[in-house]
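Re: the 247-residue chain
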Amino acid sequence: MGVLTALYRHPIKAIGYEPLENISLTAGQTMPGDRLWAVMHEASKYDPAEGWGKCMNFVRGASSARLMAVKAKLKSARLELWHPDIEPLFVSPDAAEDAERVINWVAQLCDPKRAKPVKLVKATKQGMTDRGMPWVSILSDNSLADLGARMGVTLARERFRGNIWVEGFAPFAEFDWVGQEITIGGVRLRVAEPITRCVATTVNPDTGISDADTLGTLDREYGHQDFGIVAEVIDSGPIRIGDRVMA
C-alpha cells in the first residue's frame, strides 16, 4: 500500500504545470483541465476539427526548453501563466483576443530556430495527451529518488509532467501494474502501459535550462527510457493528497 503525494495538471499542453490539492476524476476521461489547450506551430498538420492531435503538431518543451519553466493556474475559464524571464499573463484563452495574447507570450520563450507558434487550439475529443487515449499518468516518487540517486542529483517532479504522484512502492514497481487495476482513494484505474520519455525531462523546471541527462541515465541504468505509467479511469470519484494507493 502506498499514498498519493502530489497532483498536477497542465492547462496548455507542454506549457505550464499547476499543482493541485485535490481533483475529481471521471471514468473514461483525462484529468479535468489537463492539456485542455495546445499551441500549434507554423509547420503543424493538425486539423482543429479532430479534437486531438499528435505531439509533433504543437509547440513543446522538447523543442523549446524555456517553456519547461512556465507555471500555470486555471480558475474556471481564466488562465494565469508565469515564467521567471518575462512578465506574467492573465487571460481567458477561449476569447479570440486573449488566445492571440497567449501566442505572443509563448513566442517570447520559443527557440527562434524552431517553427513559430501560430494558433491556440482547444481539445474537444479529450485532453491533448501524448497518446490518443483519454488516460491519466501515474508516477512514483520512489522511482524518481532512485533515478536521481544514480545521477547524483535531486530531480524535480515537474520535469516529468505527470498527473498523479505516489510513494510507498519499490522503485519502478509501477511497471508491474501494467494490465492490472489499482485504486487511489475510491477511484479505480486500469494501468495501460509505461511512458517513454523525451528530452523535455532533461530540462530544469525552475530555469528552463537542460541540465540533467535523464534519458541517458535511464538507458544505462535500467535498459529503457521509460518513466511512469498511464491508466484509464474505471470508477469516477475525487482524489486528494494523502489518499491510499492500493496496487
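The chain has three helices and 15 strands.
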